[in-house]
Specification:
Blueprint lengths: L6 E8 L2 E6 L7 E8 L2 E7 L4 E4 L6 E10 L2 E2 L6 E4 L7 E7 L2 E6 L7 E8 L7 E5 L3 E4 L7 E9 L5 E10 L6 E8 L4 E7 L6 E8 L2 E7 L3 E4 L7 E10 L2 E2 L6 E4 L9 E6 L2 E5 L8 E8 L4 E6 L3 E5 L5 E10 L2 E2 L6 E4 L6 E9 L2 E7 L6 E7 L6 E5 L3 E4 L7 E10 L3 E2 L6 E4 L6 E9 L2 E7 L6 E8 L2 E7 L3 E4 L7 E10 L2 E2 L6 E4 L8 E5 L5 E5 L7 E8 L2 E7 L3 E4 L7 E9 L5 E10 L6 E7 L5 E6 L7 E6 L4 E4 L7 E4 L6 E9 L12 E9 L2 E10 L6
Antiparallel strand pairs: 1-2, 2-5, 3-4, 3-6, 6-7, 6-8, 9-10, 10-13, 11-12, 11-14, 14-15, 16-17, 17-20, 18-19, 18-21, 21-22, 21-23, 24-25, 25-28, 26-27, 26-29, 29-30, 29-31, 32-33, 33-36, 34-35, 34-37, 37-38, 37-39, 40-41, 41-44, 42-43, 42-45, 45-46, 45-47, 48-49, 49-52, 50-51, 50-53, 53-54, ...
Amino acid sequence: APEIPVIEKAYSKLSSSITVEWRAVPGATNYMLTAQDGDSFIETIVKNSPGTVTGLKPATLYRITIRSINSGGKSQPSPFRKVKTVLAAPILSVHSPSCDSIAVSWKAVHMAAGFSVALMRSDGLSRMLKENTTNTSLVFTNLDPGTLYTIKAYAWNANGMPGDDFTYNQRTSPNAPVDVKVAFSSGALRAVVSWMPTEGALTYSVTVSSGLLELRCNTSSASCIVPSLLCSSQYYVSVTAYNDAGSSKPTDAVSLKTIPCAPVNISIEEDEPGHLLVSWSSVSFGHYYVVFVKSDDGLEVHCNTSYTQCHFQSDCGFTYFISVFAYNKAGQSPLGDIFNYTTAPCCPSDFRAMFVSSDTVRVTWAPGRGADLYETRAATGGSAVVPCKDPAMACTLWALQGSTRYSIALRSVSEARGSSTSCAPQYVATAPCSPEIKNISKDGLGVISVLWQSNSEEATYIVTARGEAGLWHCTSTGNSCTLMDLPCGSAFSVSAVARSPAGQSLPSYSVPLETAPCCPNDLILTQVTQSVTNISCSVGMGAQTYITTLESPKGQAKCHTLQNYCLLGCITCGTNYTVSLRAISVTGLTSSCTYQGYSSSACCPSGVKFYRLSNNGIRVFWQASDETINYNTDLRGSKGNFSRTPSSGLSHCDITEISCGDVYTVVVAPVTDKRPKLTFCPKKIYSVTCSGSSVGMVIYRGKSNAKHI
């Protein structure tokens, strides 16, 4: 281990550390410094001298030792030295109670006998002020306002040894601003306040007060705008400077009178025709008044007075826009309410009345100056007056009595000032009233009678039936007329008008008219089976459904359908029928149609059988439904077809030279002169065998399922 080092010096410059100096020990690589206070100690490893032990307590006596260290170990501790740490620095609390003073205070420091406090401008432009005291506070006075000062303080002990020092920067509060000026902006009701900047001020606060109302404006510049001032008011304006040390005293208040408020209680009277009187209430801080009167044609006049009323000339039909302003040294009052006054309107010119219909007259005119609307009145001698009001230069008088002479007068009306005198009347006679159709009756096929209520002896009435099929007219001076040759199956709208020398009435209300549906032109009956007949017809105009009836002494067959065809069953063969058809419209109108009679076909024979003849032939036998009818026999096979029609009254026919070994289909049907061959009679199948080269056995195979064609 290295040798024991020897302490040469040990001292404290800071309250939390002790510095030690020693001579270097050969072979030592590090040194251990130890500061012991009673049972506690603090160790620090350093490289060489001097070394400092930190983390100590202020004003405390420590035993200091040192040991040298190398790779072989540690030396023994050196002889100790007793060293006391210096006093702790006082912790300052500083503020500027006024613009030329700084107050400093601190808490007592352990073991301190006294304190030294020094103050100097931070920019070095003043001498240092130093005070020694045993108190814990003091005040520096006669300082520069708004200036940053550096303050340094330390404590000393009974031996006069100084302790740690404490440094603090403090600015004095600013001085009050000077040269305060107030400029009033009348248009925006605001004040622009300006002043000379004061040393050390960071911000300024402008206070504008008037009684209970107080407005503030804060800024960092040397001017400020205070908005939202009230008219007709007196304010007092002061400015206070601020920095981080505090505020200055407020400046002396500067008086500010704002512009007067706009006059109120304005009244406008036309005290006599052609003269207007404008009056208002007095305004606080108002020295004089100016009244502006502008007519709607652009002409403007004004009146300057210190009183509260003015007189103006006026003319009819004009609207005057009136505003009143108050003035003082601060300027003009704000714009108050703009009043308008309209004089009585002038009478319109170029009056014209035109007939439109039996109960309507169209009136037009040139505008009357100042009129908001026009009132037109139509009256008969002693009857009720019919008024019409409209802002346009035209009016339609309606609900007049037909065939009546009216006197029509016109007045210009102003909503504010009433109406003008009546203009010269115009006389007009109205056309007949619209007729009212009372009844429409059907007198026959395509013949319609129309009855209406007549309301004018001078009128001629025209009735019109209008539909897709065209127009039909009839004319009468009475109260009825007849429409002829209207087509079937058609819908019409029937209306009537009345004509007189004064004009034509409006059409009457239309009355719907429907003619009965048309009968189909063609009706075709085709027998499908012995008991079923197909009926088809052409479309009947206006018909929605059809009812077809076949009637005979043996009974009746009927079908009702939406189509123009149907299958009619229960038909008796060999019977004569009468044929009728009813065409029905959507509304239930019916047309009865008759057609040529219909005869059903003769009945098919029964009991058709095959017999073999001795001469290599076949006999076909049947039971006839009517002995007066001829029958036709068709025999069809793969080796040949045969057709025979025996004489009337016979119920069989013979077919010779028939081929054996084949299957034959046999149909026996009545023969008709006008109709095609019947195809719906039943078909039977027989097999004809061979016996050698001759016909053998005849075997019945049943009925054919083939459809009838």
